[in-house]
């Protein structure tokens, strides 16, 4: 006769089973600072010019002036010049840096019981928060739909396909090599300098697009032919790292910062507003670079760590920016 064994199960012994947390923490995936590779000091010719005037001087605003080109005809031959002089035309924009801060804290009791290095993880999380904050501010400035820049004009918008506005975009009005050509043509017509040089060749404009705009572009037969037969130049300049490709004088890169919005077409269509940028399109007025502060309170029982910076981003030359607005439908939806 077989004897049954009345064994303890996992349920019976649950109080004896320890909980072990993995020491590997899976952090939310976040993009690195997109705009840093496109930012430089005055004279760099980058799309974003960093102004540090308030680092050395007291004040709360940075005034940036532009001397407009002379447009008068002058005189010729023996015509009298006196009294026909042309006045200089000055334009100005201002940036007023604002503080942005964030912090996290824990108690000494918590610190002694957790398996992670709280300070290390806090610095990593806060650093990524600040990077996203600064990137979003630049993207918001560049996508402004109102008058901006030295001449206080509205930034030019180009629409995909046969659309003439956001609300006339249908699913067929996609991002393509034709929209790239139109963007490059507009910046060249505005006499905007290109950015960087690769192997002695002329520089490029930078075009930042949504991933769903990329999906339609890489299916464009003209794009495929250009990438296959011409091929990329050697990326000596870090400006051109991690790019999708280049075409007709523009480097194309994808970013999740280029968000999609529904238009009011019938039926409605998801659209995205890509950016094509030339040299010195934006300025970053910086009065305080990214800094850290740690402190103890309650007699050292509570430990906090904070990150801070002060800046404002403005359009400097609205003629150096083109918005390319197209359909950006999710192909898997």
SSE inventory with pairings:
Layout: E1 39-40, E2 48-51, E3 62-67, E4 90-95, E5 98-107, H1 108-113, H2 118-142, E6 156-159, H3 177-189, E7 205-209, H4 211-217, H5 221-229, E8 245-247, E9 250-254, E10 260-262, E11 270-277, E12 282-297, E13 302-315, E14 321-327
Parallel strand pairs: 1-2, 2-12, 6-14, 7-9
Antiparallel strand pairs: 3-4, 5-13, 7-11, 8-9, 10-11, 11-14, 12-13
Distance between the termini: 63 Å
Biggest sheet statistics: 7 strands, mixed
Mean pLDDT: 84
Uncertain spans: none
The number of helical runs is 5
Rg on CA atoms, Å: 27 Å
Describe this structure as you would to a colleague.
The strands form three sheets. Strands 6, 7, 8, 9, 10, 11 and 14 form a seven-stranded mixed sheet that branches. Strands 1-2-12-13-5 form a five-stranded mixed sheet. 18% of the residues lie in helices and 28% in strands. The model has no long low-confidence stretch (mean pLDDT 84). It has one domain. The protein is built from five helices and 14 strands. It has 333 residues and is α/β, with parallel strands linked by helices.
């Amino acid at each position: 006769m077989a004897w049954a064994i009345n064994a303890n199960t996992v349920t019976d012994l649950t109080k004896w089973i320890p909980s072990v947390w993995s020491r590997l923490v899976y952090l939310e995936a976040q993009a690195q600072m997109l705009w840093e590779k496109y930012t430089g000091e005055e004279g760099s010719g980058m799309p974003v010019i960093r102004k540090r005037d308030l680092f050395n001087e007291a004040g709360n605003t940075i005034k940036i002036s532009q001397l407009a080109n002379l447009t008068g005809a002058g005189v010729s031959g023996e015509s009298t010049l006196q009294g026909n002089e042309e006045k200089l035309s000055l334009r100005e924009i201002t940036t007023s840096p604002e503080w942005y801060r964030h912090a996290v804290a824990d108690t000494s009791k918590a610190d002694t019981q957790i398996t992670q290095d709280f300070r290390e993880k806090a610095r990593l999380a806060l650093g990524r928060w600040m990077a996203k904050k600064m990137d979003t501010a630049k993207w918001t400035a560049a996508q402004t739909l109102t008058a901006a820049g030295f001449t206080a004009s509205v930034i030019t918008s180009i629409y995909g396909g046969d659309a003439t506005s956001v609300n006339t975009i249908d699913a067929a009005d996609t991002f393509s090599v034709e929209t790239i050509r139109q963007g490059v043509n507009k910046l060249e017509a505005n006499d905007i300098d290109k950015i960087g040089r690769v192997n002695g060749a002329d520089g490029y404009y930078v075009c930042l697009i949504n991933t769903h705009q990329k999906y339609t572009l890489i299916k464009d037969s003209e794009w495929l032919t250009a990438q296959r037969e011409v091929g990329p130049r050697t990326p000596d300049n870090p400006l051109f790292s991690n790019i999708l490709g280049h075409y007709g004088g523009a480097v194309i890169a994808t970013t999740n910062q280029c968000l999609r919005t529904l238009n009011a077409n019938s039926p409605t269509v998801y659209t995205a507003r890509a950016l094509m940028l030339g040299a010195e399109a934006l300025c970053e007025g910086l009065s305080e670079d990214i800094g850290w502060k740690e402190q103890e309170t309650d007699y050292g029982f509570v430990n906090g760590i904070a990150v801070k910076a002060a800046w404002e981003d403005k359009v400097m030359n609205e003629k150096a920016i083109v918005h390319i607005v197209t359909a950006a439908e999710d192909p898997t939806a």
